[in-house]
Write a structure and sequence with these properties.
This protein is mainly α and 315 residues long. It has one domain: Na+/H+ antiporter like fold (Up-down Bundle), CATH 1.20.1530. It is 83% helix and 0% strand. About 2% of the residues have low confidence.
């Protein structure tokens, strides 16, 4: 009998509930944060060990996929965010509307979109290269877009770049170096990376939500305002998903490349967005602006996970 309830979705919602409702001591949360970093490092080492080098090179050479991802992330998304934040400002209030706009200017996430591309049986190498390029460019492009569209100063530090290099690129490169030795073994055990994919996503969600809860972010927003933020983020996500999936069809991308564009083009990076927020905005504004970023992050994980699981069942 076909299962109507996906255990992974249940686990994802459980992590969300725990992060919101269960007080997690600072020491435990710090340990979970370290564990999440370790899980991400191992995950990208496994990706590097699993992917043949010629697949990575092919991903970088896929100009249509790379160009479409960057255009979606830094052109389409900001236009959608600007329109939505302007229209929704009377309902959301100025600070939360600014948060919706700021969210739209962020680069793509890396770890979750690569993991979900793997779950959906898409072009993992293409997603990895597209998301990594998006993050590296985002260290420069996002602050410039913030300066132009949000009329604020500041500069994002190098922490985001170091995070991308140390947690993602370095383990992937090491995995690529040892790929000729252990690649066959890793590829023959797909369940290994599959389980690690899902476990890493669950841990990242728990850490992100519990940290936001501990810092009192949710206490700064009323219930009606939070509902309005969820609705605005859902509209933004739906528009991005539709644009990337059907845009990939118009570009005549393969199904695997369409999945890559769907995941890398529709997601926004919480890991890059929150540290950059602290560098770009004063503390009084940072809290409310962070709310749409956190809400969108949870929505994109839940919705993209459902989509990825459905795509994984295709013939």
């Amino acid at each position: 009998m076909r299962r109507f309830i996906d255990p992974f979705i249940v686990a994802l919602l459980a992590m969300l509930a725990i992060g919101l409702l269960v007080p997690i001591p600072d020491v435990v949360r710090a340990a979970l944060d370290i564990a999440a970093d370790i899980a991400i490092v191992v995950l990208f080492f496994l990706y590097g060990a699993r992917l043949a080098t010629h697949e990575v090179v092919a991903g970088l050479r896929n100009v249509r996929l790379q160009g479409a991802t960057l255009a979606t992330t830094f052109v389409l998304f900001p236009l959608l965010g600007l329109a939505l934040s302007t229209l929704a400002a009377p309902v959301l209030g100025e600070s939360l509307a600014q948060g919706v706009l700021y969210l739209s200017l962020l680069p793509s996430t890396v770890q979750s979109c690569v993991a979900l591309t793997s779950v959906a049986r898409g072009n993992v190498a293409g997603t990895l290269t597209a998301a990594t390029v998006s993050n590296l460019l985002g260290m420069v492009v996002t602050p410039l877009l913030v300066l132009v569209l949000m009329h604020t100063g500041g500069s994002a530090g190098g922490g985001g770049i170091r995070s991308v290099l140390l947690l993602l690129l370095l383990p992937f490169v090491i995995g690529q170096l040892v790929q000729p030795l252990i690649g066959g073994y890793v590829r023959s055990r797909k369940r290994l990376t599959s389980l690690w994919d899902r476990g890493t996503i669950l841990l990242v969600v728990l850490v992100a939500v519990s940290t936001a809860t501990a810092s009192g972010v949710w206490g700064t927003v009323s219930a009606p305002a939070l509902i309005a933020v969820i609705a605005a983020c859902a509209l933004l996500l739906a528009a991005a998903l539709a644009a990337t999936w059907w845009g990939g069809r118009l570009l005549r991308l393969s199904t695997e490349d369409r999945i890559s564009l769907l995941m890398a083009g529709s997601q926004k990076s919480l890991a890059t967005g929150l540290p950059m927020l602290a560098a770009l905005f004063p503390a009084a504004l940072a809290g409310p602006i962070a709310v749409p970023v956190i809400v969108f992050h949870q929505l994109q994980l839940i919705v993209s996970t459902v989509i990825a699981r459905r795509l994984s069942r295709r013939a």
